[in-house]
Design a protein that fits this description.
The complex is a heterodimer of chains A (about 120) and B (about 110). Chain A has about 120 residues and is mainly β. Helix content of chain A is about 0%, strand content about 55%. Chain A is globular and about 45 Å long. The chains are: A mainly beta (about 120), B mainly beta (about 110). Chains A and B meet through strand 5, strand 6 and strand 11 of A and strand 4, strand 5, strand 9 and strand 10 of B.
Chain lengths: ~120, ~110
Amino acid sequence: AQKVTQAQTEISVVEKEDVTLDCVYETRDTTYYLFWYKQPPSGELVFLIRRNSFDEQNEISGRYSWNFQKSTSSFNFTITASQVVDSAVYFCALSEGGGGADGLTFGKGTHLIIQP
Amino acid sequence: DVKVTQSSRYLVKRTGEKVFLECVQDMDHENMFWYRQDPGLGLRLIYFSYDVKMKEKGDIPEGYSVSREKKERFSLILESASTNQTSMYLCASSLDYSSNQPQHFGDGTRLSIL
């Protein structure tokens, strides 16, 4: 069975600090997809990134970066120079096989608080 | 941009009522999903559908059913609402199986069962 663990329930940092959100996953499939979603206080889930199991390249998008390591089954998310607008709940998710048709298995989320 | 619209943002119903939660997407997506979100539990998949009139059980289907009569609309039905179904319900859609595109979510319906 697949499982996603986000061990950090809540993280609080001061604005401009860097912060890393951890995600560890379990799956028996060799083909799978990993995702990160952001849920701001308004409630909607915003898609951030998708990674397939064959692509271990790290990715950077502005202040956001993702570190995918199959050896440790981790897909960590780093925000550099955090801003108050980054305050949200962040979810890591896993989909075995197809990334679109199958339902996602979500972690329990990490509540990130950026203090001014 | 993909738009997934859930009919109600907030809903209050009574125990035993039959409750309908509606979701519509405007991008001709084949796949649609219903999740519930509870504090400390994250999001859990209730049902999904990969075609009109098709449905598949997710991880927690008990007490729920779904209907997909048209491609753009996916309804979640609580046959006889109970207080333990008080939750935030999120609908999502994705393009199709082969393209492996991500799921896009609606704003959610916060349902309270009294």
